[in-house]
Structures are given as structure tokens and as C-alpha cells.
Design brief:
By secondary structure, the chain is α+β, with helices and mostly antiparallel strands. Helices cover 53% and strands 19% of the residues.
Length: 402
């Protein structure tokens, strides 16, 4: 306890130098925690988008269909109703949504555009997307054969066609037999994802409409939504061993955007973290080195009184630990306050590449993450002090006392 009091006295005695070092560490830790909190919230949002749009597990068949010349609108996953019923028996499963991908031309009067369509189950489809898909209408889930089929268009595609809700449109494509097929549909509403590449060319319609248009009730994908995303790999393995001729993938394997953004952010924050650690290392090394220079007489006296070199090492390292603990405590409190202020202020980020609108900034606050980051900085502080104190035991007793 006496050595702790001595170390604390020495830290307080150094004054301005210790305060500047403490602030450098605290500000560096604050930057790391706020930056990584933003990074983690972005990762979580991208994961949520991937899981909501594709499902936790997807059953697909990418085998080209010779009848369609290898075109990718083929729908080759048959007997999906039986598989869907079997999956409902699994207690891990919440929803099983069939989706049929197809493509063609859509026209209104003299205006035409290419579309990439999805046949969906309207009763369930719009529930899973949550806030990541904004709509101003919905497909009719109880469509009768006597009614005109309906579609929903991406906002940009509707703007290209000059179409508004209630307008009649014509879909043109090739059916299962490579024959031209068309159907008249009514625009039920628009949807907006914020991604121009999607909103420019996408549409959704009822699975029954796709079956009529393509002359097949096959689908191209079954999207499985689970109680817990941690069960994705186990469900994938179970289905892949059970099913032949199809591919079973988890959301993680299909989340291309998530992997690209994560790789970019990992590099950015990795470099930022390395720079902060180097700055902390140099600041602590400088502080300890100056303390050693100014306290040559103290070090010589301790050596003359029989203190071992390891004891002198421990004394300076203990001082560095006290500085590190105080700095990380201040840094965590600053990061907590700033993160809460940002979250409450509802600040918006500008639109990222490939998007048409920004998104709210949200900073994750995770005390385990705070603790791990703080411990990493304290270890850096201790290491810097250890390097700096190597010269402490080399002070000549005679020169130090002269």
C-alpha cells in the first residue's frame, strides 16, 4: 500500500505533463469507442437488412434451364409446397416464404422499361422487411381469378413509366416453354429501398400472377426465417444433407453488401486504432522518460538504499497504470456521454455510394466492448512505461547523487 501511495503522489506531483498524457489517452479511447460503436451499429443494420431480404437460410437452385437457353429467370425448385409444410414442423422456423424470380419488359402506353421481378406471398412478405422497405400500398393477398392482377413497382421504375397507383400496365416475358407471354396488371402501389439499382428496375407481384405468366407454379427460392439467427448454420447443414440438387445458403453467405462494407470499415478503424495506440505509446514513453530524467536523484537514492532494479521498474509501471486507469475511466465516460448525445440528437449520415438517402447515426454502447478496448490501451501504457524505464536502472548512483 505504501508503494501505491508513493506512486499516486508522484503522479500528482508531475502535474501538467501527467494531465496532458491523461487527456491524450482519454481522447484516443473516446475516439476508438465512438468510432467502433458506429461501426458495430452499421454491421448490425447490414446484417438485419440481409436477413430480412433473403431470410436466415435460403434454398435455391441455380441450375440453368436448357428450355430457356440458360436464362436466369428459370424456376426449377419444384415440390416446394411439401418442403414448406415440413419446415413448418421445425420449432426453430418462424416463416417460410416462397419467392419466384423473373424478368422481362413492362410497358405503359409508349413507355417501356426492363424489370427484374419477384413473385411473393403478400400475406407474409411485407411483414419481414420491416423499416427497410417503405411502401405506399400493398398487394392483394386474396386475389380472385376474376380480378386484374396487381403489382408494386420500385419508385424509380414507376417514375420512368410515368405510372401512378391504379394505372394498368403490361408485363412481357417468356414463359416456361420459351414462348412470349404477357399479362395486364394494375399498379397497387410503390415501394422504396433507397438503392437506385433496385428501385429503377424492380417489381413485386403475387405468386399466382407469376404462375399464370410463366405457366409454372415452381419457384426459384425458399426463404426460411428462424427464431434465432445463431441457428442458421445448423439448419443449413440439416437441409443440405436432406435435399439433393439444390443449394442451401445462410444469410451470411449471401450478404455481399455486408461483407464489402465490413471489409472497408475494418481497414479504416484498424488503421485508426493503430494510430491511436502509437500516439498513446509515444505519449506515455515521453512522460515516463521525462519523469526518470527529473528524478535521477530519487532513483539513485533508492538504488543506494538497496532497492532492486525490478522494484524501480515496478514503481514507474505502477505510476503508468494509475495514469492509464484514470485516463480510460475518463475516456469511457466521455464516450458514453457523446454516444448518448448523438443517439438522442437523431443526426443523419449523408447518402452512401449506391444510395439515394442518408440514414440516422446510431452509436452502440457495449460495456464489454468498452472494457476490452480500455484494457488494450492500459496494456499499451504498461508496455510503453516498461520500455521507457529500462534506462532507470542504469543511472549511476554517484552521478545521480552529485
Amino acid at each position: 500500500m505504501s508503494w501505491l501511495r508513493i506512486a499516486l503522489r508522484n503522479v500528482l506531483h508531475d502535474g501538467t505533463r501527467v494531465i496532458s498524457t491523461l487527456l491524450i489517452i482519454a481522447v484516443g479511447l473516446t475516439a476508438l469507442l465512438v468510432g467502433s460503436g458506429f461501426m458495430l451499429s452499421t454491421y448490425d443494420a447490414l446484417q438485419e437488412i440481409a436477413m430480412r431480404s433473403e431470410g436466415h437460410v435460403s434454398i435455391i437452385d441455380d441450375t440453368p434451364d436448357p428450355a430457356l437457353g440458360g436464362a436466369h429467370q428459370q424456376l426449377t425448385l419444384s415440390h416446394w409446397q411439401t418442403l414448406q409444410a415440413d419446415l413448418w414442423e421445425d420449432e426453430r422456423v418462424v416463416r417460410v416464404l416462397p419467392r419466384a424470380r423473373f424478368e422481362g419488359m413492362i410497358s405503359k402506353g409508349d413507355e417501356s422499361a426492363v424489370f427484374f421481378g419477384s413473385g411473393v406471398d403478400p400475406k407474409e412478405e411485407f411483414r419481414v422487411h420491416g423499416p427497410f422497405l417503405r411502401t405506399d400500398g400493398i398487394l392483394n393477398p386474396w386475389l380472385t381469378p376474376q380480378e386484374t392482377p396487381d403489382v408494386m413497382l420500385g419508385t424509380q421504375l414507376a417514375r420512368t413509366l410515368g405510372a401512378t397507383t391504379g394505372d394498368l400496365l403490361i408485363l412481357h416475358t417468356q414463359n416456361r416453354h420459351a414462348e412470349n407471354s404477357e399479362i395486364t396488371v394494375q399498379l397497387a402501389g410503390l415501394y422504396h429501398t433507397g438503392t437506385p439499382d433496385i428501385d429503377n428496375h424492380s417489381l413485386m407481384t403475387n405468386l399466382t400472377t407469376v404462375a399464370t405468366l410463366l405457366d409454372t407454379d415452381n419457384i426459384s427460392q425458399l426463404s426460411i426465417y428462424l427464431q434465432r439467427r445463431e441457428a442458421s448454420t445448423a439448419v443449413q447443414t440439416f437441409l443440405q444433407n436432406r435435399l439433393d440438387g439444390v443449394t442451401v445458403q445462410t444469410w451470411y453467405q449471401r450478404a455481399e453488401l455486408y461483407h464489402k462494407v465490413k471489409a472497408l470499415y475494418d481497414r479504416i478503424f484498424g488503421v485508426m486504432g493503430l494510430i491511436i495506440l502509437i500516439v498513446v505509446f509515444l505519449a506515455v514513453s515521453n512522460t515516463i522518460a521525462l519523469a526518470i530524467h527529473q528524478r535521477r536523484e530519487e532513483i539513485a537514492t533508492l538504488s543506494a538504499l538497496g532497492s532492486s532494479p525490478s522494484r524501480i521498474y515496478a514503481n514507474f509501471i505502477l505510476e503508468a497504470c494509475l495514469i492509464g486507469l484514470a485516463a480510460t475511466t475518463i475516456g469511457m465516460l466521455l464516450a458514453y456521454a457523446i454516444s448518448n448525445a448523438i443517439n438522442l440528437s437523431e443526426l443523419m449520415m449523408p447518402a452512401p455510394p449506391g444510395k439515394t438517402e442518408g440514414y440516422p447515426i446510431f452509436i452502440y454502447i457495449s460495456w464489454p466492448h468498452y472494457f476490452i478496448t480500455s484494457v488494450t490501451l492500459i496494456i499499451t501504457v504498461v508496455f510503453a512505461s516498461f520500455i521507457a524505464t529500462r534506462n532507470a536502472t542504469r543511472v549511476s548512483i554517484v552521478k545521480g547523487l552529485s
